[in-house]
Amino acid sequence: MSAVVEDLRAAGLLRELRTVESAQGAHVRLDGRDVLLLCSNDYLGLAEDPRVRDAAARAVHEWGAGAGASRLVSGNMTPHRELEAELAAFKGTEACVLFGSGFLANTGVVAALAGPGEVVVSDALNHASIVDGCRLAQAETIVYPHADLDGLAAALDRAAGRRATIVTDSVFSMDGDVAPLHGIVELARRHGARVIVDEAHATGVIGPAGRGLVAELGLEGEIDVVVGTLSKALGSYGAFACCSAELATFLVNRARTVIFSTGLPPSCVAAAGEALRILRNEPRVVGRLHANARALRAELAAQGLAVEPGDMPIVPLVIGDPEAAMGLCEAALDRGVFAQAIRPPTVPDGTSRLRLVAMASHTEAELRDAARVLGALTG
Length: 379
Hints:
Low-confidence stretches: none
Shape: globular
Number of helices: 14
Strand order of the largest sheet: 3-9-8-7-6-4-5
Helix content: 40-55%
Strand content: 15-25%
Largest sheet: 7 strands, mixed
Mean pLDDT: 96
Order of helices and strands: HEEHHEHEHEHEHEHEEHHHHEHEEEH
Number of strands: 13
């Protein structure tokens, strides 16, 4: 083990945990200093919203600290059922199944659906949880080039005669780009394939009232399983799979990450439910997120950095060399901007970067100032 650690250190790829000394928010305390948080997935700033925090606290007092057991034993509680119904209505599906985390949702759903003698077809830049779900599945995995519909069509041709499942992120976590879902659905229809879409970085970020890319494109009813997380825009923890009632029953009986995991703590469920209600009642918060993303991108471009215009909050600032990316991260932190460096294997070799994220709880002035700091450091 020590040799592996030393090899990582020598390559500039050793990872170390930082300790945040405050609640999550637009600003956090790190190493005793207040810094602007520019690398969180709390897109709407709801993790710190008093209504969400109060909902979690009330749930602890009413329902206890934990669920106690797997949901198939004694851990399926009223809050779980209520949130599943609310999420199904939000996503426009018949049913929903809660999971303990986004990682557990993707590994459980993919492994349950892609069986022996079948094929699972996966985008090259899918999240690690999808990659591991494919590894656990008893099916052949074919990886197609990122967002390449011709590559997907060729993969489906290779699967001819076997049942295929296509799995893709809707918004890709490291680049912030979106999957060509219209084309994916059309190919799925043509080949009789299932489609699983992970909306982890789309829920609360894209679409009417933040309902995701599937809703934005009018593809409700065309996707077999819509996976999402409670831990990003909804500011809590856990995940879900929205699908037909029949498929939900199948997952409860075949997804090992449901069967053998303790149910989500009631506090997490209540916090996510309150965040979902805020999102539905105050959809303008999504517009504020987009305005902040545009402001950040515009100022970065004005500083001469290679950033495309747009309103997606994930903004990759590709540096290339991992040590250079870490150097920029530390220099920015010294100036009060916390923008974490992302290095291989999370991203491909040669694409180490700062993964910048605008949040609805930032001010445009804060984001412009942060962009100027980064511009000065890279100029």
